Amino acid sequence: MKITIIGAGNVGRNLSNLFISGGHHVKVGLREGHQLPDEFTEGVQGAFVKDAIADADIVVLAIPYSACEKVLSELVDALSGKIVVDATNPLNDDWSPLVLGAQNSAGEENAKRLPNSHLVKAFNTVFADIMNADGLTHHGDSVTAFIAGDNEGARNQVAKLANTSGFAALEVGGMTNARYLEAMAHLNIQIAVGMDGGTHAGFIYFQQP
Questions:
Q1: Secondary structure of the chain: what % helix, strand, coil (to 5)?
Q2: Which of 170, 174, 123 is nearest to 151 (CA)?
């Protein structure tokens, strides 16, 4: 698949490296220039955001949630008809939860901002520090990528992307379930930061046969 990631921070970089290792074609959308930092795997291409989006099968939002309103307002037309993965979490500057209300989520807000796109919530429950081949496995099990979205076909495509990139994909239903996934991310941060558990940790969901 052709994947474009918007955001060249830790999440964007580590996801791009995993996607390349999974056999996908990856571009990173940049606001200025085409030069990516050395930490990116060979084969990942940098391009201006709209150019990077043009032929993408899936676009991943790997930017702070606080930046989404401005960034997405400029990309509504470019992202029309696209599968867009929201990997963001609503956070304050100190990593505490940004409260959007019990009946809302960052995923739902971003879906409203992109009414003509197929928004899927995924990868938001995984710390960047374990987004690598070694970090995604524990005693033979892979870290779970929980996937929520209203369009089943879009969810299926994101699940394929996750599975081929080292995650264990688990579709969890419609976009309202982003509320639970973001709460899981807040819990993960509380354990890691608030309780000094560290960010080399993740969720593994399993079902007994």
A1: 35, 20, 45
A2: 174
Cβ pair 6, 63 in contact under 8 A: yes
Question: Residue 66 carries which DSSP code?
Answer: G
**Dihedrals φ, ψ of 68, to 5°?**
-65, -40
What are the tokens at 34?
A: 């085409």
Residue 149's beta-bridge partner residues? 120
Write the single-letter amino acid at 64. Answer: P
Residues for the chain: how many in total?
A: 209
Interior angle at CA 81, CA 75 and CA 84, nearest 5: 65
SS3 28: strand
Tens of pLDDT, residue by residue over 84-110, are 999 999 999 988 988 888 899 999 999
Whether the predicted model's global pTM rises above the 0.85 cut: yes
Q: Is residue 206 exposed (0-12), middle (13-18) or buried (19+ Cβ within 10 Å)?
A: exposed
Residue 11 near residue 62 (C-beta atoms within 8 A): yes
Give the pLDDT score at 31: 82
Q: How far is CA 125 from CA 18, 144, 188, 203, in A?
A: 16, 9, 7, 8
Q: Using CA atoms in the order 24, 40, 122, 165, what is the torsion angle rounded to 10 degrees?
A: 40
In Å, what is the CA distance from 92 to each residue of 89, 97, 122?
10, 6, 20
